Amino acid sequence: MAPADTEKDHWSAETYSASASFVPELTQTVLRYLSPCPTDRILDIGCGDGKFTAKFLPAADYVLGLDSSKNLVDAAIRDYSSLANAEFRVVDCRFLEQETAVVDGSWDKVISNAALHWILRDPSTRQSTINAIHACLKPGGSFVFEMGGHGNVPEVHAALIYALVRRGVPVHKAREAGPWFFASETWMRNALQKAGFKVEKLEVEYRPTKLTTDASGGLAGWVRLMGAQFLELLDPVQREDSVREICEVLRSVVTREEDGSQWLGYVRLRGIATRVN
Ligand code: BEZ
């Protein structure tokens, strides 16, 4: 999930779990689309700490999980690599085409959950990553994915940009610091077809998502973890001021009256695409 090894690794399995434990949990639909079978060799792009991978691992022949965060891959190795059919490697999937041992047309399925919006952030490597996923698959193999779609988490996205602008960061710089690309259905369909995929299914779902109630999670934990690349433009004192301000500004937007629970406006873009030849 995190960018290249020259860049800072923002991730830790513990903070991810405190602020985003719902990510591997809300995956019934994408797992149904994956429909793993006992002969499947499956490549998991952006596997993170392996908690999502572990949900389909028992139903597959072999799974290789790739993620650019060493911290998360280490957690996946610690928790799951004792299972004979699982391996995890640190790979920055923006440059997947360079992994010639993986991009070999041998995989039955490629899966990606909640990772492509990070991996596709850089416009210069977007299409090459999707081309490489296509080249990983056997003819007839399928690519199943779920990611943030256009308009994902709009309230906190706007609040993060504005928190920087209020502290003197030019708006174009604040936008450029954004670590996410929330693809529209049209963009994704075009990119998949350009890579040679047949698009079998592509759907958008508005899925408001309840934040965790962990002491170190909730909205503040989410903002610190997921918005780390935005906040890095500020000094440490300004960062914490911004987190407080964002939570205060968003309080009435995200809080449900009946029980005080806090929700973000997640939008999922989900699909199945097959390699035809
Ligand atoms: C998502 O899974 O949609 C997401 C996660 C972190 C930041 C933004 C979006």
Automatic annotation (TrEMBL):
Keyword Transferase: yes
GO process terms (BP): methylation
GO molecular function, one term: methyltransferase activity
Matches recorded under PANTHER family: TRANS-ACONITATE 2-METHYLTRANSFERASE, TRANS-ACONITATE 2-METHYLTRANSFERASE-RELATED
Gene3D superfamilies, per the entry: Vaccinia Virus protein VP39
InterPro entries documented for this protein: Methyltransf_25, SAM-dependent_MTases_sf
Key words, A-Z: Methyltransferase, Transferase
Residues in Methyltransferase domain copies: 42-141
TM spans (from-to): none
Pfam families referenced in this protein's UniProt entry, alphabetically: Methyltransf_25 (PF13649)
Name of this chain's protein: Methyltransferase domain-containing protein
SUPFAM superfamilies (UniProt xref): S-adenosyl-L-methionine-dependent methyltransferases (SSF53335)
